[in-house]
Amino acid sequence: MSESFLLVGGSSDIALHLAALLMDEGHHVTLLARDVERTKTLEAQGATVVQGDALNEETVQQAVEQAQASGANGLTGVAHLVGSIALRPPHAMKVEDFEEVIRTNLTSAFTTLKLGGKALLKTGSGRIVFTSSVAGSYGLTNHEAIAAAKGGLEAMVRSAASTYAQRGIRVNAVAPGLTETRLGASVLRSDAIREASVGMIPLKRINQPEEIAASMHWLLTKAPDNFTGQVLHLDGGMSAIRG
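Below the sequence we write its predicted structure tokens.
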């Protein structure tokens, strides 16, 4: 049965893969994206594209309403794929830059939870998936700002899973390590940094975006009903085992 999904941060590399997976199954996808040029192919295949910022409540609400209208039974699931990173030690970071990381990664996630969750309450069921990071649970040098944002996001996911447990809504997150995306490329600025980064990962390789998308697709469509409040650590074993 065709269902309707909303992807917030719809022009990210992982979102593009996730949208394709959902559309290949016949589902309708609404993309809230800033860079709509990257979504042209999916739009031509039937996706609905809303251009705008995930921090703007009116824009997010517009995207939610579009997704609701596109599904025979309203909105089925929401994925939040907005992210940024600023790797500087606290003594070298301005408070304004720290706050920007929090707003981009955590405040936008709360906005999606607030408005997406309200729509799913009307549906009577649904799934919300957020994007965290290995930095949310694993102490990484110079990652204080993103660690604060993603650690907060993971705590929010657990609380929201409890809040909506009896309302049919399941809330989870994925926590990738370094991934071959535009955002990842901003960290992997040289061969030396890439080699050092890979050396920290037990599997000795960097994630591919389609791997993260496949995991989010599972959480949105195939995960069992009793799977909620969880964080899938997609980091090559980095946060759990020794290499």
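The mean pLDDT is 93.
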